[in-house]
Amino acid sequence: MIRILLADDQRLVRAGFRSILDDEEDLSVVAEAGDGDEAVRLAHEHVPDVVLMDVRMPVADGIEATRRIAADPALGATRVVILTTFDLDEYVYEALRAGACGFLLKDTEPAELLHAVRVAARGDALLAPTVTRRLIAELARRAPAPPDPAQHLAALTAREHEVLALLAAGLSNDGIAAELTLSPATAKTHVSRIMTKLDARDRAQLVIVAYESGMTLPGWLEQR
């Protein structure tokens, strides 16, 4: 059973999500929060597998709540998915840096919502290739020049550098395997080792590291 915490200040939004999620045999909404502080408190109380977190909430916003949940060792297995109205919401990047594993549009189709919750629960990131490239392009527009990549990625092997660059461009393990002529299992092993070396919670955090280290630039995959 995947246990879910809903955090949104709009009751109708929570009710709509609950009705979809609770209809599934493997999903259960264990609590609802109307603000960020309540979300953190209920996360500690229920230790959910997934938190669906709105950004704009009273008392403490979703970014602060996500940061507090992600920083708590007792909630190390809890994954936060940000709920947003626009896929390039100005707060999405900060939410990913705070520890969210990805983001989901509020008007998503029910089947996509169910898939996203299950993906998050197993520890994968919710960053589709097209969304990842748009996100990186937006970061490039607003951020200063990146630092020397060697300062952050020195622990990685040459192959791991290749894997991280492809992951940051939005490729799945199967896509990485096809690009580098590896088996999917080997690609998955490389991703796991990179996460360990860079102390990343999930694939979304690896995207942030790859960008901030200067490894990934907008459109790099199309220009290869």
Q: Can you describe what's shown?
A:
This is Response regulator transcription factor. Pfam families: GerE (PF00196), Response_reg (PF00072). It comes from Streptomyces rectiviolaceus. The protein is an alpha/beta fold. It is built from eleven helices and five strands. A five-stranded parallel sheet has the order 2-1-3-4-5, sandwiched between helices. Helix 4 links the parallel strand 4 and strand 5. The longest helix is centred in the middle third of the chain and has 14 residues. The C terminus is likely disordered.
Please describe the topology of this protein.
Layout: E1 2-7, H1 11-21, E2 27-33, H2 36-46, E3 50-54, H3 62-70, E4 79-84, H4 92-98, E5 102-105, H5 110-121, H6 129-142, H7 150-153, H8 158-168, H9 173-180, H10 184-197, H11 203-212
Parallel strand pairs: 1-2, 1-3, 3-4, 4-5
Indicate the low-confidence ranges by residue numbers: 218-224
What is the mean pLDDT? Answer: 82
Helical content (DSSP H or I, runs of 4+): 40-55%
How many helices? The count is 11
Distance between the termini: 43 Å
Count of β-strands: 5
Order of helices and strands: EHEHEHEHEHHHHHHH
What order do the strands of the largest sheet run in, or round the barrel if closed?
2-1-3-4-5
Question: What is the 3D form?
Answer: globular
Radius of gyration (Å): 17 Å
Structural class: alpha/beta
For the sheet with most strands, the description reads: 5 strands, parallel
Query: What fraction of residues sit in β-strands?
Result: 5-15%
